């Protein structure tokens, strides 16, 4: 079993839909949780960064962490065609200077 | 906004040849990572530097891969000899040591094709 599990999809939704992306993990030492967006043939770009459990909101994006269930989610409201990309969850045990452990990524397609 | 620079962006090489990738992290970032991303997979760490020192190279295939960061700034990753299975995206990332700013910033990557 990999440390971080993520359904690769693909996930296809119409424009304006609410999207839910999820990851589960097995290492209870993970404390820092991130979501990266990666467009085709580009490097990952950071979307959301959260510490420990709880919710964090940034515009149309909401990240949730449930450490008791070892489960994290990213919600995208009012999805746009420009949101079409691969979304990678990533985790680390410490904050600065610690390598990230990534999920496989979920490919999202938003149709207009 | 400061960015991580990588070159080349694309590289095609024949198996058994040598290939090298270069990375220039964001200025002031002490930590530098090289990740490999196979198509359809998430990035996996190859090597991590703290300043000029290697912190973690446990997943680096040391019989063919080498990495250096001689002055604690830019870094080079080398493969010799390249194998067909090395075809992947090679990503460089950097981060600070400062609390609250620890997230990794990625470069655009080098896409390697070994024929």
Please give a handful of descriptors for the protein shown.
heterodimer; A: 112 residues; mainly beta; six-stranded mixed β-sheet; five-stranded antiparallel β-sheet; 11 strands; 54% strand; globular; B: 115 residues; four-stranded antiparallel β-sheet
Word description of this protein:
Helices cover about 0% and strands about 55% of the residues of chain A. Chain A has strands at about 5, 10-15, 20-25, 30-40, 45-50, 55-60, 60-65, 70-75, 85-90, 100, 105-110. In chain A, β7 and β8 form a beta hairpin. The radius of gyration of chain A is 13 Å and the shape is globular. The radius of gyration of chain B is 14 Å and the shape is globular. In chain B, strands 2, 4, 5, 6, 9, 10 and 11 form a 7-stranded mixed β-sheet that branches. A 4-stranded antiparallel β-sheet of chain B has the order 1-3-8-7, with no helix packed on it. The interface of A and B includes residues 4, 90 and 100 of A.
